Amino acid sequence: MNNDELINEGTNQVNHNRPYIPLGCHPIDTGYYLISTNEIARMYKEVVTWIQRRTPGAMIVGNPRLGKTRAIKYLVNSLPSVDIVGLDTPIYTIKCSKFKNPNESDFFECLLKDVKHHTPLAGRAISKRRRLYNFLIEKGLGSSRSRVIMFLDDAQRLHELHYEWLMDIYNELESEGILLTVILVGQRELFDQRTAFLLSNKKQIIGRFMVDDYKFKGIGSIDDIRLCLKNYDEDAIYPLGTNWTFTRYFFPVQYKQGFRLSNFSDILLEVFQEVATETGSKGKIEIPMFYFSSTIENALRYLGIDGSNVEQITKSHWKYCIRMSGYINAERYSEVLKHDN
């Protein structure tokens, strides 16, 4: 079955009283939605443990495209409900930029921007540094837990000097009775950096930010897939305040008849395993969340009522959706890199 047949089979039907959503505005089209996964739940539990232990810093490490950035968003939204954190604890996500050489002014300017300070650009490095200190101290003292939490995304981009400046921030807040927790989130180069710091006797950096680590993984089991798909079936709702789950919105007639994406968990894992094998991938499958969610979005978009409106999703349909996600090409490229190394 070719691509045109895959997206044109079936009979498109009327809207079946679906709520009106302007074209391109559904979260499936915008990408602005979060779903829980088993891996996020495991990571969440670990991060809460770090916070309970008053750990000053730790690392979350994983390959690209596994969903670490989305996982951070999920944590930022969920952690305030934990009693040890509290609703008023400031939690910030810092996007680490890549600079050829560490620059103090650039570093503190980036932090000021990402904590949403109203004047991040003015002045020299010392002024930016002091503004950041004062801002974080004010926010920390204004919280009931006297705590500030920072997630540093793409932390593998940090240099040794950046860690020295982070220690300065930590010490400044600690002197005011505020606990700063820094969670480094990045790729496996973070492990190499930790080893390099150990060999160069930079134990103060390791002790402050790198003792604890969590290895973030992709989707690899039938339970992982089923939980993700159930989110689309039951928990992901739009418009808010309605009972229109993502699956129901794109498969309204089939949904009423018992159609659920989670019913296809076994066959979807089977197809992912097949295409991974075809690309030369060996060992246990680990599906990056980026490609998994893109596959599901393709199924909703192309196979649902706004596309070919199929009654059931076949293996050929799933393979088409996986291919459209870019997963197959990514796996091939990954295997080439493995052989080159």
Give the tags.
341 residues, alpha/beta, Rossmann fold, five-stranded parallel β-sheet, 16 helices
Structure, described:
The chain has 341 residues and is an alpha/beta fold. The protein folds into 2 domains: 3-32 and 220-340, no CATH class; 38-215, Rossmann fold (3-Layer(aba) Sandwich), CATH 3.40.50. It contains 16 helices and 5 strands. It has helices at residues 3-8, 27-30, 38-52, 68-78, 104-114, 125-141, 160-175, 189-199, 203-209, 222-235, 246-250, 252-256, 265-278, 289-303, 315-325, 327-340; strands at 57-61, 91-95, 147-153, 179-186, 212-215. Strands 2-3-4-1-5 form a 5-stranded parallel β-sheet, sandwiched between helices. Helix 7 (160-175) links the parallel strand 3 and strand 4. Helix 10 packs across helix 13 (265-278). The longest helix is centred in the middle third of the chain and has 17 residues, at 125-141.
Question: How many DSSP-defined strands?
Answer: 5
Structural class: alpha/beta
Proportion of residues in helical segments: 40-55%
> What is the 3D shape?
globular
Q: What is the rounded distance between the termini? A: 37 Å
Taking all Cα atoms into account, the compactness measure Rg is 23 Å
How many separate helices? 16
What layout of secondary structure does this protein have?
Blueprint: H1 3-8, H2 27-30, H3 38-52, E1 57-61, H4 68-78, E2 91-95, H5 104-114, H6 125-141, E3 147-153, H7 160-175, E4 179-186, H8 189-199, H9 203-209, E5 212-215, H10 222-235, H11 246-250, H12 252-256, H13 265-278, H14 289-303, H15 315-325, H16 327-340
Parallel strand pairs: 1-4, 1-5, 2-3, 3-4
Helix pairs in contact: 5-6, 10-13, 13-15, 14-15
